[in-house]
């Protein structure tokens, strides 16, 4: 029997449910029991788990990684999980290492694949800035891993879980106070886009000029890591191992070389168009259509043609 606990992020419920596929792969040939852990889920619909552990804590006004670490520790002490899986959101990246330290186990962050042979489980993640993949043998219990949204997808999540009400003991009140809130801009999340126009280091003009092309395609603008490091674009639209993982129907790569770090952010992309002056760019070998030429000029002419 392999028991897996998955932390449900109330801002990313669907992505959290997808982590069931991670548990499926970790279990290998062992029988699997999946537990979801939700804090103040309210009216959010959560399916697919065998059991849903619910902690309703009205006093917890905001996400506090310290309080949540205490809750996860208490839940683990009661149920003894073989694995604890966390979504690698900004909040998840604060929780996962705290829980690993508390339970005195290792943490494999941002995994992209899982290999199981008998009782040996290896978690695969990019290493050395995405230039190679590391296969990490996990021999401590529980196995702790964090996973980018949109990397794994569960095939079916219709099962109604058994609800388990959990009341933590001697839980300290949150010390975080919300001073102010602001509405997030209405720009489309690149993870939801069906068409993405993405610029890399070989795109020499302003990234904002791609917005019209993206609008015509009912898509979104994205960038590779070099443009974020050069402060030419915000990290929120970065594709790659240190950015976001995307699965669009169409991905137009403009001046993107195609390092492993970037390619790790592309999952189940149906069609790739690569535009680059470098014929040997790795991205060209992933693309269905390759255009050898200036990426900015191509984007301008394609926009003009589609506008007509």
UniProtKB/TrEMBL annotation:
UniProt protein name: Electron transfer flavoprotein subunit alpha/FixB family protein
Family membership: Belongs to the ETF alpha-subunit/FixB family.
Pfam families registered for this protein in UniProt: ETF, ETF_alpha
Domain of life: Bacteria
Cross-referenced Gene3D superfamilies: HUPs, TPP-binding domain
Coiled coil: none
Domain spans labelled Electron transfer flavoprotein alpha/beta-subunit N-terminal: 4-183
SUPFAM superfamilies documented for this protein: Adenine nucleotide alpha hydrolases-like, DHS-like NAD/FAD-binding domain
